[in-house]
Amino acid sequence: MISEKKTVLVVDDNPDNITLINGLLRPLYQIKVAINGAKAIEMIKKNPPDIILLDVVMPEMDGYEVCRILKNDIDFWEIPIIFLTAQIDVLAESKGFEMGAADYITKPVSPPILLSRVKTHLELKKASDFLKSQNQYLEKEISRRTGEVALIQEVSIMAMAALAETRDSETGLHLQRTKLYVSELCEELASRPGYEKNLSREIIDTIVASAPLHDIGKVGIPDAVLLKPGRLTPAEFEIIKNHAILGREAIIKAELIMARRETYLKYPKEIVSSHHEKWDGSGYPQGLSGENIPLSARIVALADAYDAITSERIYKSASTHQEAVTIITAEAGRHFDPAVVDAFLQVHENFKAIARRYSEPGASICLDV
User: Fold this and answer.
1) 86 or 25, greater pLDDT
2) Is residue 65 a contact partner of residue 34, using CB atoms and an 8 Å limit?
3) Are the C-beta atoms of 105 and 92 separated by less than 8 Å?
4) Is residue 144, in this structure, part of any structural domain at all?
5) Largest distance between two CA atoms of the chain
6) Structural domain that includes position 262
7) 211 plus 109 within the same structural domain
């Protein structure tokens, strides 16, 4: 297969130089000619060459200006430029290299040097283009595979959450609402100073995807307690409280199976274990307080509470959205992280819209103000 000839643009206002260079290079390359800088820029924009031989001293627009224009344009800055000059000046050469020139050839042009330099820089550009192409391919492949892994992780999380859901009276809409509430809180907090590190894009996505797992430990609670049609006794509530510990233990076992301590299950483990902890230390199972409670769990705690308050249960009727706002606001600094409550107050209307959109069929979810 015959490869297509590379294109060399010669920019020079001296006809003799053009004739000489054309004669030397035409057997090997496709030659284009511009007799001034403005014409060269025009030609390059229409059909970029593979390399440019650029005279330094030209009327109106000199070679330095042509080089500056090209190197400031993302579409053309990778084209190699070889300056042609009759001046032997170290400062002039330094100026050209600083502007991005690939090389200098002094006039009168030496045929062997010209042929060698053009060949060398075209080969370098070919290698650079190949590496760029490979890097772009690798970036796309990494992005594709990362997306596949993220999808597998999310499907795994939802499958585990769905398993817990079969043991509980709550439905998938509760999980969906909670997930969306968590997203609203994360995005609002992430926009505030001090949360950039703990709520990066990747962390937010993981927390949101993990939120449906918050009650997975309920799979280990006896039916007689979990499905009891009415309020629990103090003893039964103590049994229910074990679901946070059971859920955490299940995730730790999963990490042991994977033989890794740091996995995408880090945030699910935090949420499952600590979303019933309270800011003042009166929660369970460990009685953690303040910022000792993982941020992910503090966020899920409020989202889960809002859904519980505004949803109908066997043992209670649904409260209004405004009642939920009042209750949650009053619990800032006691049950909830004050900063998370403040974020909630900024986006609570979005909570209301989510609750309305994903309300339970045939059930009462009270959102009237």
Assistant:
1) 25
2) no
3) no
4) no
5) 103
6) 167-357
7) no
Please, what is the average pLDDT of the chain? Answer: 85
Task: Write out pLDDT tens, residues 246-275.
Answer: 888 888 877 776 665 555 678 989 999 999
Query: Is residue 10 over pLDDT 80?
Result: yes
pLDDT at 369: 44
Which residues, other chains included, contact 19 with Cβ-Cβ below 8 Å and sequence gap of 6+?
Answer: none
What's the distance, Cα to Cα, between the start and end of the chain in Å? 76
Cα separation, 53 vs 73, in Å, equals: 18
pTM of this prediction? 0.58
Q: Tell me which amino acid residue 76 is.
A: F
**181 in the same domain as 126:** no
Measured CA angle at 178 (ends 298, 196), to 5 deg: 45
Q: Is residue 315 part of a domain?
A: yes
CB-based contact 87:79 (threshold 8 Å): no
Q: Is the pLDDT of residue 291 over 70?
A: yes
pLDDT (mean) for 296-313: 94
φ, ψ (nearest 5 deg) of residue 282: -95, 5
Pick the range with the lowest mean pLDDT from 116-120, 163-167, 249-253, 301-305.
Answer: 163-167
Nearest CA among 25, 26, 87 for reference residue 62: 87
11 band by pLDDT with thresholds 50, 70 and 90 = very high
201 with 80, same domain: the answer is no
Contact 307, 178 (CB under 8 A): yes
Q: Which residues contact 114 (CB under 8 A, 6 or more apart)?
A: 21, 24, 25, 105
Instruction: For residue 60, give the 3-state DSSP assignment.
Output: coil
Same-domain pairing of 113 and 172: no
210 and 271 in a single domain? The answer is yes
- Mean pLDDT, to the nearest integer, of 202-223? 87
State the DSSP string of 67-94. HHHHHT-TTTTTS-EEEEES---HHHHH
- pLDDT of res. 352: 96
Looking at the structure, do residues 114 and 186 belong to the same domain, yes or no?
A: no
CATH code of the domain in which 122 resides: 3.40.50.2300
